[in-house]
Amino acid sequence: MALAAVAAFAMDGVESRRVTVEADVRRGLPAFTVVGLADKALREARERVQGAIKNSGYRFPEERLTVNLAPAYLRKVGPSFDLPLALAILAATGQVDATATGTAAFAGELALNGDLRPMRGALAVAQGAHRHGFARIFVPRSRVLEAALVDGIEAVGVDTLTEAVDILAGRAEPRPHPPAPAEMIDADALDLFDVRGHNGLIEAIKVVVAGGHNLHLQGPPGTGKTMLARRLPGLLPPMTREEATEVTRIHSVTGRHRGTGLITQRPFRSPHHTISASGLIGGGATPQPGEITLAHHGVLFLDEWSEFNRGALEALRQPLEDGRVVIVRGQSVLTFPTRCMLVAASNPCPCGMGGNDCRCSAADVARHDRRLSGPLLDRMDVTLYVARPTAEQMQGQVPQTSAAVREAVLGARAVQARRFEGTAVSCNGQMTPRMVRELVAATPAALDALNLLHDREGLSARGYHRVLRLARTVADMEDSERVHPLHVQIASSWRTDAKSMPVAA
């Protein structure tokens, strides 16, 4: 009888959890059993591992073989356990030194010939290995640049099972990492300079981006709502190392990262309006992050959002407030981050024209308005009406470039970085009610103006705080230490625009 154990990691949402792969070989009729709450892809690993071991020139035990994945209560999903399974079997049969496998963690999918295929979540696995004190982690060579993003642990990229065994035995040295691909410069990057006839909206756009506030663009079709929204990520400041690592981990776990290193561009997600609630906020039989999590630290754009399923939109309410969503499926509870800017675009009525040109009946307009609930609209900090520009405006106005707007945004973000130093908050749009009380620094006159507005416009308590947060950003753009009545008036005019969509019950 022989027993060996190898360290691996299972995905638990966008995090990784340690799993011990225990292989037990003893006398008995030949059998290969995997226990420990493994999914179908992992149960099928028996055939892949057996083929990879034999085709790599090693001996597969013709005895009773049991592999346990501990802890047994944690569900293990995916084929990335192939490599640790194979090495545990080789260690249990004496073909690999068990002490060599004890200081490293392993992850990778095996082909039948022993080659290692790309895998999901290499960064999350490397972070878990570092957290548990491992010195090295073995991953497919195609994902070694991703694993190497974690400081304090040696990432070893291997192409085959044989190469991994040789490195563990000391017969070979780990190969240098492949060169990181040069960062692509998009010559066709979207620039605000392309948007003509809407210079009057740019000041509000600056404030929205500078404070990370939610934005609702409303107006007739073809007036530039989508053009404006798609240029917002280019106005945001560069991500910090921590933010980029978090975004990379999310995209790696969901299989949307090619393993080429750190993602440096802020995410921009624009799902189709037929998306389900689980697709938007996350879920499924095996819970996966939704679009709002994929937009973490970036922009979630809902074009024609009045056409989205009402249930899907209502599911956004809590994640927008909390910055995270908790998914409960059976005995599994997963938490996904959802800290992003929500940008939505809609038409004023079903025909899209609105005003005197509207061809809709009163019943049509009422049904259209009911598609968006009051609580959801109350979470939008700024509502801008994007009118149809005249020919003179389109030809005569000289629009600002994204670079010029970004420079102003960076100045305001620097002020906010100093304000929120030492906290998990990075911009005014993320302030908690307590932070609003302690950090907004509104003058008594500004508070009086807001109180008057609260009673006159019927603002909710949430709306009251959101106007204060927006006014704080307006003050930051003007390099003002205090929030004055004018800042409150500007913020309230953008929130309670006369042409904005009526709030439905």
CATH superfamily of the largest domain: P-loop containing nucleotide triphosphate hydrolases
What's the overall average pLDDT, rounded? Answer: 90
The spatial strand order of the largest sheet comes to 11-14-17-10-18
Q: Count up the domains.
A: 2
Low-confidence blocks of residues? 498-505
In helices, the fraction of residues equals 25-40%
Query: Which band does the percent of strand residues land in?
Result: 15-25%
CATH architecture of the largest domain: 3-Layer(aba) Sandwich
Query: Looking at the structure, what is the overall shape?
Result: elongated
The main sheet comes to:
5 strands, parallel
Please explain how this structure is put together.
The structure is a single chain. With 505 residues, the protein is α/β, with parallel strands linked by helices. It has two domains: 2-169, Ribosomal Protein S5, domain 2, CATH 3.30.230.10; 192-422, Rossmann fold (3-Layer(aba) Sandwich), CATH 3.40.50.300. Helix content is 38%, strand content 18%. The longest helix is centred in the C-terminal third of the chain and has 18 residues, at 402-419. The protein is elongated and about 85 Å long. Residues 498-505 have low confidence and may be disordered.
Q: What's the layout of helices and strands?
A:
Blueprint: E1 2-12, E2 15-26, E3 31-35, H1 40-43, H2 45-55, E4 64-70, H3 82-92, H4 98-101, E5 104-106, E6 109-110, E7 116-117, H5 122-131, E8 136-140, H6 144-147, E9 154-158, H7 161-169, H8 199-211, E10 215-218, H9 225-230, H10 241-253, E11 268-269, H11 277-281, E12 282-283, E13 288-289, H12 291-294, E14 299-303, H13 310-314, H14 317-322, E15 324-329, E16 332-337, E17 341-346, H15 362-370, H16 374-377, E18 382-385, H17 391-396, H18 402-419, H19 433-439, H20 444-457, H21 461-477, H22 485-495
Parallel strand pairs: 3-4, 5-8, 8-9, 10-17, 10-18, 11-14, 14-17
Antiparallel strand pairs: 1-2, 2-4, 6-7, 12-13, 15-16
Helix pairs in contact: 2-3, 8-18, 8-21, 20-22, 21-22
